[in-house]
Design brief:
about 250 residues, alpha/beta, Rossmann fold, seven-stranded parallel sheet, about 45% helix, about 15% strand
C-alpha cells in the first residue's frame, strides 16, 4: 500500500467530484490534504468529513486565476504545515462548442482556468516543494488532449495544459519535482449527471464502462507516491481504452 505519511498535498477543485475523491484517497494513505476551491461550504464540509474519518485535512479558498491568491495559499501552507510535497491541479471548467460559436471571452475564460491556473500553481508551489526536498505535481488534463475531439476551447485548453506539463517536467527535474498528467475519459459528476452520452461512451469503451472519480484518484495516488518515483513527463490516460478506438 502506498504511504504518504508526513506528506502535505494541495488539491485544487477538491470540494466535489474528482478532486474530492483525490483528497479522500490521499488522506486515507496518510497525507495531510489541503482542499482548495471556490465552493467554501462544500470544501469545508469535505475537509470535516475527511477528519471525521481519521484523516488530516484543511480548506482554503482559492481562485486559480488569481496570482495573488496562489502566492498567499502557497506561503500559508509553508507557514502552517512547514512543507508542501504534492500539488494536484484538478480545478477546471468545460465550455463546449465549435469554433464558429466560440466567443473570445469564452475562450479566454477557458484558458485562464484550465491553463493559466495550473501554471500559476506550479510557479508558486514548486519553490515550496523544492524546499521540502522535492515531490510531485499532477495536472488533470483529459483524454481529449490525446485524440481529436469536438469542443474548440476545451480541447485547446487541455492540449495546452499537457504541453505546459512537459515543460514543467523538464524545468523542475533539477529540484527533484516530478510533473505528470492524468488524462481522464468521461467521468460522471454533478455537472453531467443523467446525460445520454454517459451510456453511449460506455458502449464504445473497450473495458465496457466509463471512469469513476475513484479511478482518477487511484492514478493520482500512484503518480505522487514512491511507486511513481522515476516517472515524470507522463500522460496517463484513464479511460478504459477509449483512446484506442471502439470496443469489438
Amino acid at each position: 500500500m502506498a504511504s504518504l505519511d508526513g506528506k502535505v498535498a494541495l488539491i485544487t477543485g477538491a470540494a466535489r467530484g474528482i478532486g474530492a475523491a483525490e483528497a479522500s484517497l490521499l488522506a486515507e494513505h496518510g497525507a495531510t490534504v489541503v482542499i482548495a476551491d471556490l465552493r467554501d461550504e462544500q470544501g469545508r464540509a469535505h475537509a470535516a468529513a475527511i477528519e471525521a474519518q481519521g484523516g488530516k485535512a484543511a480548506y482554503v479558498h482559492l481562485d486559480v486565476t488569481s496570482e495573488e491568491e496562489w502566492a498567499k495559499v502557497a506561503a500559508g501552507i509553508e507557514a502552517g504545515h512547514g512543507r508542501l510535497d504534492i500539488l494536484v491541479n484538478t480545478a477546471g471548467i468545460n465550455l463546449r462548442g465549435p469554433i464558429a460559436t466560440t466567443t473570445a471571452a469564452d475562450f479566454a475564460t477557458m484558458m485562464a482556468v484550465n491553463v493559466m491556473g495550473p501554471m500559476l500553481g506550479m510557479k508558486h508551489c514548486a519553490p515550496v516543494i523544492a524546499r521540502a526536498g522535492g515531490g510531485a505535481i499532477v495536472n488533470i488534463t483529459s483524454n481529449v488532449s490525446l485524440i481529436p475531439s469536438r469542443g474548440a476551447s476545451y480541447t485547446a485548453s487541455k492540449w495546452g495544459l499537457r504541453g505546459l506539463s512537459k515543460v514543467a517536467a523538464l524545468e523542475y527535474a533539477k529540484d527533484k519535482i516530478r510533473v505528470n498528467c492524468v488524462c481522464p475519459g468521461v467521468v460522471p459528476t454533478d455537472l453531467n449527471k443523467g446525460q445520454p452520452y454517459l451510456e453511449t461512451t460506455a458502449g464504445v469503451t473497450p473495458l465496457g464502462r466509463i471512469a469513476t472519480a475513484g479511478d482518477i484518484a487511484q492514478a493520482v495516488l500512484f503518480l505522487v507516491s514512491d511507486a511513481g518515483a522515476f516517472i515524470t513527463g507522463l500522460d496517463m490516460p484513464v479511460d478504459g481504452g477509449f483512446t484506442l478506438g471502439k470496443a469489438g
